[in-house]
Amino acid sequence: MKVKTSITLPEDLLLSIDQTDPNRSSFLEKAARQYLAALAKSRRNEKDAEILGERAESLNREALDVLEYQDLA
After folding, report:
1. What percentage of the chain reaches a pLDDT higher than 70?
2. What whole-number distance in Å separates Cα of residue 59 and Cα of residue 65?
3. Residue 67: which residues within 8 A CB-CB, separation 6 or more?
4. CA–CA separation, 68 vs 73, rounded Å?
5. 11 phi-psi bin (left φ>0, alpha ψ -120 to 50, beta other)
């Protein structure tokens, strides 16, 4: 379901949007969805980095163990 809303934008931004896509609503919907997807991806990456940071010592020990087993260390 679509809901009508009103927003205020700088004139130069609105002109750029109009030059890119004459359908402002469609343009802004796509832009918002892309931005929200990028935020979600960034949050996932931050969480992954946090998990790796918490487990780095254990993962590094395991990697060294594998290398020693393969006689590469």
Report:
1. 99
2. 10
3. 73
4. 5
5. alpha
**Residue 24: count of CB within 10 angstroms of its CB:** 14
- Residue pointed to by tokens 């919907």: 29
DSSP string spanning the chain?
A: ----------HHHHHHHHHH-S-HHHHHHHHHHHHHHHHHHHHHHHHHHHHHHHHHHHHHHHHHHHHHHTT--
CA distance 57 to 33: 38
- Residues 42-61: tens digit of each pLDDT: 999 999 999 999 999 999 99
The label of the residue with tokens 């002109």 reads: 15
**pTM assigned to the model:** 0.69
